[in-house]
Amino acid sequence: GMGFVVAMKTFDKSRPGIGALGLGLAQGALDIAVEYARKRVQFGKPIISFQAIQHKLANMATRTEASRALIYSGARYMDTDPPDMSKIAAMCKMYAADVAMEVAIEAVQILGGYGYMQDYPVEKMMRDAKILQIYEGTNEIQRNIIGQELNKEYGRLKESFF
């Protein structure tokens, strides 16, 4: 009669690992996009010199670093067996999977037609990022978990903010 509870506790331990997969995917897609942008020449100069590409890469790098910070701090925190483990695990999985998808899509965009071809790795990265948003509980389910946990936490507060 405890199967569901055991399964949910297992997800609490495994979801940060899914986040780590997302982080690695985002970093890999970013690395490929930067390398390509440095080598691809348009109008006589590498496309990395164009502001639009720099902004895309800057956003990709910043989101990847934010994902890294959440995964690392979340993993350290979860080692303490906190009472809000489900919330933190869901945040790690949800955020990193979403970042992986965003970064992979932008990498495809930077590589242009090459990014969409199966001969290049970012096309597969985009598909892999999508599955990270789906398995071990969709990211919509992760948002439900986070919201429910926030409701519990704030419901325990004795003083009202209003």
Descriptive overview:
This protein has 162 residues and is mainly alpha-helical. It has six helices and two strands; from the N terminus they run H-E-E-H-H-H-H-H. Strands 1-2 form a two-stranded antiparallel sheet. It is elongated, with a radius of gyration of 19 Å. The N and C termini lie far apart (42 Å). The mean pLDDT is 94.
Quick recap:
The chain is mainly alpha-helical. Helices cover 77% and strands 2% of the residues.
| Envelope shape | elongated
- Give the uncertain stretches in residue-range form: none
**How many extended strands?**
2
Secondary-structure-derived class: mainly alpha
Overall mean confidence score, pLDDT: 94
Record keyword descriptors for this entry.
162 residues; mainly alpha; two-stranded antiparallel ribbon; 2% strand; elongated
SSE layout:
Blueprint: H1 3-39, E1 41-42, E2 45-46, H2 51-78, H3 85-111, H4 113-116, H5 121-132, H6 139-155
Antiparallel strand pairs: 1-2
Helix pairs in contact: 1-2, 1-3, 1-5, 2-3, 3-5, 3-6
